[in-house]
Design a protein that fits this description.
This protein is of the alpha/beta class and 296 residues long. The chain folds into two domains: 3-208, P-loop containing nucleotide triphosphate hydrolases (Rossmann fold); 215-290, Alpha-Beta Plaits (2-Layer Sandwich). It is 39% helix and 23% strand. It has eleven helices and 14 strands. The chain has a six-stranded mixed β-sheet with strand order 6-7-8-3-9-10, sandwiched between helices. The protein has a four-stranded antiparallel β-sheet with strand order 12-13-11-14. β7, α6 (156-173) and β8 form a beta-alpha-beta unit. α9 (226-237) runs antiparallel to α10 (256-268). This is ABC transporter ATP-binding protein.
């Protein structure tokens, strides 16, 4: 699909599929076009060219049927805080028009909110509100669940819990889950495949399995003396594989085993290692193919 506004092309000929039972990550730096893409998928804006199919239905020509297959949450879900969780679900079920009380019970159990569903939403934690928002999105039995920044604002425990829940939804319910996120490490742990968007184009679609199999991390050392440390690193990756930043920082791409060997040799060479920072494999891939653009 493509989107042009005025003389500016925001999205250029992007194509991807999200499969049943998988979690698909959608990553991109600021201004890459992630939000525009989501708005086109859910029919809020029309693509300038190209087609979007959801559950076999063309969003442009068969909008109602296509949207019956979609559940969507953009960042924090919009909920009525003065109402209970159950009342919120009843309200949204009435808007859909064909959702039974049995279905409401089902989604409450799916998101494991049984114990708190009759409490007012204003008493919920952010993680609980996210779960209730997902329950709301599941009411119509969608085939595609779109989550925009689902872990935004959550603490580490909440992030882990939501990640496991999303994986469970895809595996047990057979949902296709589309996750837009800036949290690279979380995407690597949560997703089956990842699309990286840069400058309005998808520059890479790959499986997380393939990323992990490659096993290379971007490693940064804050170390002195830098010339001695650089010589040690060059023995492992060659002169072209080592980059010096400032007077004490060295950067190279290494496997986990290579990193352990280098650390040992740096100590043997009498170097002072002040810190070692290892970026995950997805982050290394992202920086490599986007030229170091900032994720957002």
């Amino acid at each position: 699909m493509q989107k042009t506004i005025g003389k500016r092309t925001i999205i250029r000929n992007i194509t991807f599929d999200v499969h049943q039972g998988e979690v698909f990550g959608f990553l991109g730096p600021n201004g890459a076009g992630k939000t525009t893409t989501i708005r086109m998928i859910v029919g809020l804006i029309a693509p300038t060219a190209g087609r979007i199919y959801i559950g076999g239905h063309d969003v442009r020509t068969n909008f109602i049927e296509a949207m019956r297959n979609v559940g969507c949450i953009v960042e924090n879900p919009e909920l009525y805080k003065y109402m209970t969780g159950w009342q919120n679900l009843e309200h949204f079920a009435a808007m859909l028009g064909d959702v039974s009380h049995e279905r409401i019970h089902e989604v409450v159990q799916q998101v494991k909110m049984d114990a708190r569903i009759h409490d007012k939403v204003k008493t919920y934690s952010l993680g609980m509100r996210q779960r209730l928002g997902i329950a709301q999105a599941l009411l119509g039995r969608p085939k595609l669940l779109i989550l925009d920044e689902p872990t935004n604002g959550l603490d580490p425990a909440g992030i882990r819990e939501l990640r496991e829940f999303i994986r469970e939804l895809a595996a047990q319910e057979g949902l296709a889950v589309f996750v837009s996120s800036h949290m690279l490490a979380e995407v690597q742990m949560m997703c089956d495949r990842v699309a990286i968007l840069s400058g309005g184009e998808i520059v890479k679609v790959t499986s997380v399995e393939e990323i992990v199999a490659n096993g290379v991390n971007r490693v940064e050392w804050n170390v002195e003396p830098a010339d001695v440390a650089s010589a040690v690193l060059e023995q492992q990756v060659g002169a072209d594989g080592v980059k010096q930043i400032g007077t004490t920082k060295l950067v190279a791409s290494l496997t986990q085993d290579q990193t352990a060997v280098v650390n040992r040799k740096l100590i043997e060479a009498g170097c002072n290692i002040y810190s070692v920072t290892i970026q995950n494999q997805l982050e290394e891939l992202f920086l490599e193919i986007t030229g170091g653009e900032t994720i957002a």
